[in-house]
Amino acid sequence: MITIKWFLPDLEATATAGAKLSKILEPGCIIMMDGDLGSGKTTLCKNICASLGVPINLVTSPTYTMVNMYSYNSGVIHHLDLYRLEDQNELEDFDFEDLIAVDGITLVEWPKLLRSLVGTQGVLNIKINYVSDGSREIIMSSHDSLYERLMN
Ligand SMILES: Nc1ncnc2c1ncn2[C@@H]1O[C@H](COP(=O)(O)OP(=O)(O)O)[C@@H](O)[C@H]1O
Ligand SMILES: [Mg+2]
Q1: Whose CA is nearest to atom 10 of ligand 1?
Q2: Residue ranges per domain, the chain?
Q3: Which of 4, 26, 104, 132 falls 20 to 30 Å from 32 in CA-CA distance?
Q4: CATH number among 3.40.1190.20, 3.40.50.720, 3.40.50.300, 3.65.10.10, domain 2-151
């Protein structure tokens, strides 16, 4: 189990964090993002996607659609926001492959009800904490050694 904490003093630091994350992501990776409304989950997703080559304006909050899909250089990204999901049973309306990009990258905001459906392999947990108007802290944890590369 690894745990890494980064302080993000401003939006530029969040962009850099997104770029660093994007560099180590491989097909099958799933990032679970927790944090209050307005903490910066969508902003971090935008930065990860932009670093992977998705035009940043295409990356919008999937609060109403629940799943947005973007293509990038090496495949597909699923961007989920499960805020409006009230019950895990509602996930049965989706095929697993509609939620998780099995051969791509999955970014999940409000992942609570999805957690039991995925294991720990390829999963990075990120908790975003509001520090001040412009700054945030992210705490990342994973059981997958793939993410040890984030420590360098
Ligand atoms: N360092 C920072 N990192 C991320 N977001 C920040 C930062 N500083 C200010 N913000 C602002 O906080 C807000 C985060 O909103 P958003 O990403 O939609 O949050 P969430 O998806 O968690 O609800 C945005 O308006 C963003 O510009
Ligand atoms: Mg959001």
Answers
A1: 134
A2: 2-151
A3: 132
A4: 3.40.50.300
